[in-house]
Amino acid sequence: LLISKSGTGNIPPASPSKIPAARYLGVLAVIPGLIVAIPLMQTQTKLQTAFYAFVEEGDVAAAQVKADFFEEIENGAPGNPIIAIYAANSLYIDKAYREAAEASRRAISIDPTDYRAWWFLASSLESIDRKTAIDARSEAIKLSPLNVDDLLNQVKNYIAVGDLANSKSLSERISQISPGSSQDVEAKTLIG
Fold first, then answer.
1. Which stretches within 10-133 are classed as H helix?
2. What is the per-residue pLDDT across 39-89, written as a single tens digit (0 to 9) for each?
3. Do the Cβ atoms of 136 and 125 come closer than 8 Å?
4. Cα–Cα distance between 165 and 183 in angstroms, integer?
5. pTM
6. C-alpha span between 38 and 40 (Å, rounded)
7. What sign does the dihedral 53-56-62-65 (CA atoms) show?
8. Whole-angstrom Cα distance, residue 133 to residue 157?
């Protein structure tokens, strides 16, 4: 609250000669923000367009176009893994698992500690061939060691390669973390 010297709360109007300069300074102060904001808004619009673009399952050409579009957006924001994670998420939903795995790898190359990137890589690889997903799922487990869904998926991966010792070990770990859970029951059933 501004109070005049008289204490009435009425503020005398500024002199007309000072108003235009203040307006110009205000406009000049906004311009740098617009220079930064407009490209970000364009990137956000492109990202939303790509994310929500639906690709029919099995349409390899459309999945590649979508993946390329995401990569183009990523190139506009180097060093930011989020766009690659959105790409992996959207492509995974479309069941374009190879493209989702590639997007996950790009995110991991930027930030190897991002759980989501490892999850999408492991889940995409599991959808292609469980045998290829063990290393990626192990990284996801390192980043979220109490996630029993990840542990159960790794049990399935180890079973796929015939590694019953590691399968049993992880099944026991699930039992310790979440006894009686659906993951615990399923792991025990898979182990036999």
1. 19-52, 60-75, 81-93, 97-110, 115-128
2. 545 566 666 666 667 778 888 888 888 888 888 888 888 888 999 999 999
3. yes
4. 18
5. 0.74
6. 5
7. positive
8. 7
